[in-house]
């Protein structure tokens, strides 16, 4: 049996175990990783690097930074202020948090960081309003994920240059992506996602956690207020960490270094005790993240992504309707990004989209932005992006509850993106 077939079988069994829910997800993730290694689908040395992956270190550190911030009274005071402004309206709360998250997502090219900054305040606000954070955290995660770099601000200003690099690399320079083209293409999607998450998403969210996580158990502990020095240190460290992440490109410091420094500072300055810092890390979700890297790596090493991409290109060449072509180039990367890292899917599919357009003599600008948009909007599974495991730990979600909440926004994303982009950037 070929490694490709073996890899797909392991992926299917892993997904089935996640949905079944009888085996802890962290155990499933590491078992799946071992299976990929033992069957030759994944190189052992490559697998080992996933435990020290920058995203893995970043998410573990953000658990600690967020816990330190939550430990201060600053979060509670913010929650009281938000509740007064919102006058007890959940819709007004969602409006404020969605707008701030979407704005942060334009300057911080990491949904994990955006969600990690916003989640502690959202949890405190929910506690103040006497509702479960499970009602609001996944909608907040959707905004943190789907709106990243949608506007030409911060990291979004580099999107056009990156896409033009793909066009040059594939010798199709008859067309150029302008600086504002990604914004023009993704703006309706950004608005649609924000409107859905403000007015409708909470109606489909669970009223209480579906599963209890270690992070939620720590959160329930009633601890006395910190001494004045540690109190001030907690929110100063959090604010400085946030500012460093916003200006990360100018500082030329890796995001994981910033997050790790913030986590260590929380302990050094006494905001968290060493035991509290360790308890704040949701290890099952960290192992789930490592396992998701392994699945994406195995799919890449066995060539599964390229096989799907080539089939997609051949199929697109048989279609005459540009909207159907756009739909195919959105839905396939979108679904594949649920089990592979978005950057890997983009590396595979954007060149394939360019070559398909080149063969048809078509304008590739809309199609490649569509592929990019699909890859940046993955939120249906914990393998989609590191922000999802973090959200699952905070909100107490399992796979079925994620999928249930994802179906409507995923459909909206697909319809709005394809209809708008293929109209504004026609193939011919």
Low-confidence spans: none
Mean pLDDT reading = 88
Element-level helix/strand string = HHHHHHHHHHHHHHHHHHHHHH
- Oligomer class: single chain
Structural class: mainly alpha
Helix content: over 70%
Set out the fold topology.
Elements: H1 3-20, H2 25-38, H3 44-49, H4 54-71, H5 73-86, H6 90-107, H7 111-128, H8 137-146, H9 159-169, H10 181-199, H11 214-219, H12 228-246, H13 248-251, H14 255-268, H15 274-280, H16 283-301, H17 304-317, H18 322-336, H19 342-360, H20 365-375, H21 387-395, H22 399-424
Helix pairs in contact: 1-2, 2-16, 4-7, 4-12, 4-14, 4-15, 5-6, 5-7, 6-7, 6-8, 6-10, 7-8, 7-21, 8-10, 8-21, 10-20, 10-22, 12-14, 16-21, 17-18, 17-19, 18-20, 18-22, 19-20, 20-22
Protein model, in words:
- This protein has 22 helices and no strands.
- It starts with a helix and ends with a helix.
- It has 428 residues and is mainly α.
- 72% of the residues lie in helices and 0% in strands.
- It has one domain.
Compact overview of the structure:
With 428 residues, the protein is an all-alpha fold. It has helices spanning 3-20, 25-38, 44-49, 54-71, 73-86, 90-107, 111-128, 137-146, 159-169, 181-199, 214-219, 228-246, 248-251, 255-268, 274-280, 283-301, 304-317, 322-336, 342-360, 365-375, 387-395, 399-424. It has one domain.
């Amino acid at each position: 049996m070929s490694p490709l077939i073996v890899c797909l079988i392991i992926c299917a069994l892993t997904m089935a175990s996640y949905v079944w829910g009888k085996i802890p997800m962290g155990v499933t993730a590491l078992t799946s990783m071992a299976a990929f290694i033992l069957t030759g689908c994944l190189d052992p040395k490559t697998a080992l690097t996933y435990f020290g992956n920058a995203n893995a270190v970043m998410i573990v550190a953000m658990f600690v930074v967020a816990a330190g911030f939550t430990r201060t009274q600053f979060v509670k005071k913010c929650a009281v202020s938000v509740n007064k402004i919102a006058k007890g309206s959940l819709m007004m709360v969602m409006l404020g948090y969605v707008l701030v998250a979407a704005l942060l997502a334009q300057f911080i090219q990491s949904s994990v960081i955006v969600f990690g900054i916003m989640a502690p305040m959202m949890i405190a606000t929910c506690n103040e309003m006497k509702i479960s954070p499970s009602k609001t955290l996944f909608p907040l995660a959707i905004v943190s994920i789907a709106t990243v770099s949608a506007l030409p601000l911060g990291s979004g200003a580099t999107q056009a240059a990156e896409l033009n690099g793909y066009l040059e690399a594939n010798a199709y320079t008859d067309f150029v992506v302008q600086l504002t083209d990604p914004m023009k293409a993704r703006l309706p999607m950004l608005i649609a996602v924000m409107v859905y998450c403000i007015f409708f998403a909470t109606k489909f969210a669970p009223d209480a956690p579906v599963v209890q996580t270690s992070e939620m158990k720590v959160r329930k502990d009633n601890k006395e207020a910190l001494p004045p020095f540690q109190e001030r240190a907690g929110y100063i460290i959090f604010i400085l960490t946030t500012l460093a992440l916003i200006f990360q490109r100018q500082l030329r410091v890796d995001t994981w270094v910033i997050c790790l420094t913030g986590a260590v500072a929380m302990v050094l300055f006494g905001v968290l005790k060493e035991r509290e810092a360790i308890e704040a890390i949701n290890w099952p979700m960290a192992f789930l993240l490592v396992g998701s890297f392994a699945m994406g790596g195995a799919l890449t090493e066995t060539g599964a992504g390229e096989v799907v991409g080539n089939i997609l290109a051949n199929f697109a060449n048989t279609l005459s309707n540009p909207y159907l072509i756009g739909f195919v180039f959105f839905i396939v990367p979108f679904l594949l990004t649920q089990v592979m890292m978005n950057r890997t899917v983009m590396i595979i599919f954007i060149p394939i989209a360019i070559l398909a357009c080149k063969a048809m003599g078509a304008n590739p600008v809309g199609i490649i932005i569509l592929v990019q948009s699909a890859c940046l909007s993955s939120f249906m599974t914990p393998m989609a992006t590191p922000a999802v495991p973090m959200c699952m730990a905070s909100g107490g979600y399992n796979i079925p509850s994620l999928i249930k909440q994802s179906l409507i926004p995923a459909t909206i994303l697909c319809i709005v993106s394809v209809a708008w982009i293929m109209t504004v950037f026609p193939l011919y």
